[in-house]
Specification:
This protein has 13 helices and two strands. Strands 1-2 form a two-stranded antiparallel sheet. The mean pLDDT is 97. Belongs to the ammonia transporter channel (TC 1.A.11.2) family.
């Protein structure tokens, strides 16, 4: 065990949890109508709780167990069987590696929340998220990070898929699942209402930015120069994408908005994520500059051309950003085109199939969408019996 590595990953674990609670919750919560903000908080918080338990029960074993098939890790580490305070994963206590990866298993299904807010049933949220994490996310983790079929020495030969912190594992899977759910749900009854609290959006984005240092810097799994470089390029990409998004807004619409600026931040963070362990500051500047414009145009494509109500643009920002960053690894010469493209296609098809099957199965158990009256009145009071704001008190 290395004490410095252990100390850094303890901090990184806290930072990644901070991304979901409260970062993502505030970012998403500010973007919806006031009558639905508590439901967004509820979704993020409940998903964090449920994924933590499921990761302990089976998720970690599926992702990082000792399975030799290349398809999944098996069940040898169910309930952390055989893992003690003395067990090591590289230079880290294995129990810490478990906790660090658990925070990734929390935020990935939580990202999908943005696609279905304001119209989805709470029972569906929990049932789908739990099954999706176990049956889609965990196997993909094994394929790329757990020594499975897409890793080095797998089906793409000596150089496998390069995905430092989750461009494919986190952002492509969550983005595609979000888009598919949005298609099955259909559009909201009222799509024209603006974000009820842009201040929440900015605060949440700022928390995500800070937490992302743990997300990308922690993925080095060591306290060394590689972690410092990953942290630095993450920051540069986020800063550049924020400005390129705002500038592109200014050119197209005559005004640059706060919500646009901070959405650009998230686009830059998602885009640098897979490449953060393989590129330097100049490449991060390029990735961020393109991401701010590319993801903004993807929002326009999904909303206005495809007419899909992915409410908070999960696919356009996270999905497109993660895919773009994954391809930039090949563009910049740090990975093979065959592996990067092949990994995207294989994981994309697998995610789509699993997501569609789960939507249909879970819809047989619990309603996918709330009724019209509940949607009109808002989920906060109708589903959870609470209001976010009581102006009379």
């Amino acid at each position: 065990m290395n004490g410095a590595d252990t100390a850094w990953i303890i901090v990184a674990t806290a930072l990644v949890l901070f991304m979901t609670l409260p970062g993502l919750a505030l970012f998403y919560g500010g973007l919806v109508r006031a009558r639905n903000v508590l439901s967004v908080f509820m979704h993020c918080f409940a998903i964090a709780c449920l994924m933590s338990i499921l990761w302990l029960v089976a998720g970690y074993s599926i992702a990082f167990g000792g399975g030799t098939s290349g398809l999944w890790g098996g069940l040898d580490k169910v309930m952390l069987a055989g893992v003690t305070v003395d067990s090591l994963s590289g230079t880290l206590p294995e129990i810490l590696f478990f906790a660090f990866q658990m925070t990734f298993a929390i935020i990935t299904p939580a990202l999908i929340v943005g696609a279905y807010v304001e119209r989805v049933g709470f029972g569906f949220v929990l049932t789908f998220s739990g099954l999706w994490m176990l049956l889609c996310y965990a196997p993909v983790v094994h394929w790329i990070w757990g020594g499975g079929m897409l890793a080095d020495g797998g089906i793409f030969g000596e150089t496998g898929v390069k995905d430092f912190a989750g461009g494919i594992v986190v952002h492509e899977t969550a983005g595609l699942a979000a888009l598919i759910i949005a298609v099955f749900l259909g559009p909201r009854r009222n799509r024209t209402t603006p974000p009820h609290n842009p201040g929440f959006v900015m605060i949440g984005a700022a928390m995500l930015w800070v937490g992302w240092f743990g997300f990308n810097g922690g993925s080095q799994l060591a306290a060394d120069g590689g972690a410092a470089m990953a942290l630095t390029v993450t920051h540069i990409s986020a800063a550049t994408a924020s400005l390129s998004w705002a500038l592109w807004e200014r050119i197209k619409y005559g005004k640059a908005s706060l919500v646009g600026l901070v959405t650009g931040t998230i686009a830059g963070l998602a885009s640098i994520t897979p490449a953060s362990g393989f590129v330097g500051p100049a490449a991060a500047l390029l990735i961020g500059a393109v991401a701010g414009i590319l993801c903004q145009e993807a929002v326009n494509l999904v909303r206005n051309w495809l007419k899909i109500d992915d409410t908070l643009d999960v696919f356009a920002v996270h999905g497109v950003g993660g895919i773009f960053g994954t391809l930039m690894i090949a563009v910049l010469g740090s990975g093979s085109w065959a592996a990067q493209l092949g990994g995207l296609v294989i994981v994309g098809v697998f995610t789509a199939v699993v997501t569609i099957v789960l939507i249909k199965v879970v819809a047989l158990i619990t309603p996918l969408r709330v009724d019209a009256e509940t949607e009109t009145n808002g989920l906060d009071l109708s589903v959870h019996g609470e209001r976010a704001y009581d102006m009379s008190s």
